[in-house]
Amino acid sequence: MPTSFTPLALSAVTAVSAMGTGIAATRRALHERLGGLRPASPEDRPAAFVGRVEGVDSVALPPELARYNCRNNRLAEMALLQDGFLAAVAEARERLGATRIAVVMGTSTSGIAETEAAYRRRPEGSFELPEDFDFAATHDLFSLPRYVRARLGLAGPALTISTACTSGARAFLEAATMISAGLCDAAVVGGVDTLCRMTVEGFGSLALLAPGPTRPCAADRDGITVGEAAAFVLLTRPQDAAPDAVQLLGAGASSDGHHMSSPHPEGLGAVSAMRAALDAAQLDAAQIDYINLHGTGTRANDAMEDRAVSHLFGNAVPCSSTKGWTGHTLGASGALEAVVAALCLQDGLVPGCLGVERVDPEFQADVAVENRRAPLRRVLSNSFGFGGSNCSLVLGHAA
Amino acid sequence: MSGVHCHIGGLALLGPGLPCWAESKPVLAGRVPWQEAPPVVPPPAMLAPTERRRTSLVVRLALAAASGAVEAAGVAPEALETVFASSNGDGAVVGAILDSLAAPDGEVSPTQFHNSVHNAAAGYWGIGAHSTKPSISIGCHQDSFALGLLQAAVQVAGRGVPVLFCAYDAPLAGPLAPMHPTAFPFAMACVLTPEPTPATRAALTLRHLPGGAPAAPSPWQKLAEGNPAARSLPLLAALAAGGAASLVWPLLDDARLEVEVSPC
Fold first, then answer.
1. In chain A, which residues have their Cβ closer than 8 Å to the Cβ of B252?
2. Is the pLDDT at B27 greater than 90, yes or no?
3. Which of B144, B157, B208 sits opposite A157 (nearest CB)?
4. Cβ contact A149–B134 (<8 Å)
5. Which residue of B has its CA nearest to A166?
């Protein structure tokens, strides 16, 4: 019999995306409706717009961790330096012990941009990759949690979840399960994905790239904008956090078992992930005050998600996608949007979709396209991905 | 720390000279000598022909082991949550995309792109098994088997559910191949449960501990070093032998996984 979900506190949070470096900038961008998507430079062809984070290349990793140097870990470092995150983890490490804090990270492509560069750096006609290319410390999926664990001086288990665009959300569920199984007492949870040729060309090949900034839920929405982000949360038991810390109240996951890259048209997998998250949190649909949609801006995803959301919630709960601010940050999106959900809870903010003149008239759910202010007690955040992977998180104030 | 507990059964494997559990068990137990033979990876019978055509060697490898495990466990494939662990993922597909990106036109095949995700094998498993159960795919380089087994046991202990665990890896392709030398394809799978079942072979207690340690001596050490998923061989050998065992896997960054195997 499934054991019930024990709420966990978001003791510390930090995020870097195209909408802002750190929590204060992210919060300001949400309130002032300042999106971070910009026209793409030639290196990001065939994308017309991207959610690129400025300044990543000037970030220096500590010299003893230099072998981990790649865009993904530089973006991770940039986020770790914001919002007092290093100090918060150091304090938890002192209190709980380094061996009792796990590192659970989601990423879809890790440092593959470094591999792409290594391929390009080969002299004309040469097959072998350059000798200074460190595959294990950059390209490999495990590079991210190894870097974060070493950087934070932690000694608990490390794990990389790579379930495409649910990776960052799934990291929260797996970390919660680790704590519940007694493997650790706290976890640094998060997701990092960075712009690389592979994902931009890949979404281009699927004809899913929007010609302008992505406009999720719009009647004339026309695809995704690829973005990049790093988001980290120190997840602890509530007694190890400030009393007013936002909590992870429940999490649920499912598989579509339908198709590799197309969602189930009726959203059955999405419905069961949301229902599992509500069940874990022991909440009814009516107790959710805002839904942060996966909302990628593609025709298929947003239509499927509207059917799934309206099936469970009718039109009673305001919902929106914040990918108009950040782009689709892929394996980081679930972690980034969990942080966004926490900010919305703290501020009583429903951030209406950016750049949407007319919501798809077929949609049944209550899609917000302007910011609304309302007291929020509980927020649901959705993530869906290739391979038919679905994950929903419920965040809220302590009961 | 008291450790994470679960029961293990429904064993399957596919590797060089190790074609399936039934034929490999006496070899793993040391009663029959191991003889090198290339693994033969069957096409996945669980998929419809259209999907089957899209599957690569590594997906077929994972599905063969996973199917073998649920069959041996006597459980319906759609009844199990899954943990798929792989270091290289689909290295052939990732390598082909990297080759394309390095070419002048730089275009990527859409089918290759959606097959390049690390959870491709898990996705095809969901389609073939008609499973809507939660699934994770993990990638932890040389530690993929050990940390995948640990997380599968954590799910069993922490969520009280039965879990299908599958570790699989195949050699990387092209210029990537020497970056993480992988000598042959290898996959194993098993079903972990909270309580013993008729298929249970042993109880496991797993502990993640600080500090490295040498791996326990094993006649399978050389083969285990040829593929991240083959690092499961000392566990499979202990289960084939049927006695109690204390196993240790050194992890990459100053830590180790200890596993107590208790027959039941």
1. 142, 146
2. yes
3. B208
4. no
5. B136
Nearest to B129 among A155, A257, A276 (CB): A257
Q: Tell me the per-residue pLDDT of A318-340, one tens digit each, with 9 for 90 and over.
A: 999 999 999 999 999 999 999 99
Cite the DSSP H helix spans in chain A. 23-32, 71-80, 85-96, 112-121, 143-151, 167-180, 197-205, 268-281, 299-313, 323-326, 333-347
C-beta separation of B164 from B180 below 8 A: no
Across the range A262-268, mean pLDDT stands at: 87
Enumerate the active-site residues of A: 165, 294, 328
Nearest to B69 by CA among B29, B20, B16: B20
CB-CB under 8 Å, B159 with A2: yes
Crossing angle (nearest 10°) for helices B21-28 and B233-241:
80
- Using pLDDT thresholds of 50, 70 and 90, give the confidence band for residue A398: confident
What's the average model confidence in pLDDT over A34-57? 96
Pairwise CA distance, residues B154 & B152, whole Å: 5
Specify whether the CB–CB gap between A103 and A154 falls below 8 A: yes
Mean pLDDT estimate for chain A: 97
Which B residues in the span 145-204 are in contact with A, Cβ-Cβ below 8 Å? 147, 150-151, 153-155, 157-161, 174-176, 178-180
Task: Give the domains, in start order, of chain A with CATH numbers.
Answer: 8-396 (3.40.47.10)
Half-sphere exposure of A223 (CA within 13 A, CB side): 18
Question: Please, are residues A105 and A258 in contact by the beta-carbon 8 Å criterion?
Answer: no
* B254 lies within 8 A of chain A by CB: yes
Q: Is residue A2 predicted with pLDDT exceeding 60? A: no
φ, ψ for residue A44, nearest 5 deg: -100, 15
pLDDT grade for A264, boundaries at 50, 70 and 90: confident
Residues B70-87 have pLDDT tens digits of 999 999 999 999 999 999
pLDDT number for residue B1: 57
Whether B252 and A146 lie within 8 Å, measured CB to CB: yes
pLDDT at B53: 87
Whether the predicted pLDDT of A1 surpasses 80: no
Which residues from B are below 8 Å from A157, CB to CB? 147, 150, 208, 255
Q: Considering only alpha carbons, which residue of chain A is nearest residue B160? A: A2
Domains belonging to chain B, first-starting first, are 4-199+214-242 (3.40.47.10)
Among chain B residues, the shortest Cα distance to A254 is held by B134
Averaged confidence pLDDT in chain B: 96
Quick check: B126 and A257 CB within 8 A? yes
Predicted-complex ipTM score: 0.98
**Mean pLDDT, rounded, for A97-122:** 97
Residue-wise DSSP of B106-172 = ----HHHHHH-STTHHHHHHHHHHT--S-EEEE--GGGHHHHHHHHHHHHHHHH---EEEEEEE---
Set of chain B residues whose Cβ sits within 8 Å of the Cβ of A155: 210, 254-255
Number of Cβ pairs closer than 8 Å across A and B?
220
Q: Give percent of chain A above pLDDT 90.
A: 95
Taking an 8 Å cut-off on Cβ atoms, the answer to whether B118 and A258 are in contact is: no
Interface test with B, best of A67, A159, A170, A203 (most B CBs within 10 A): A159
Q: Give dist(CA A18, CA A327) in Å, integer.
A: 8
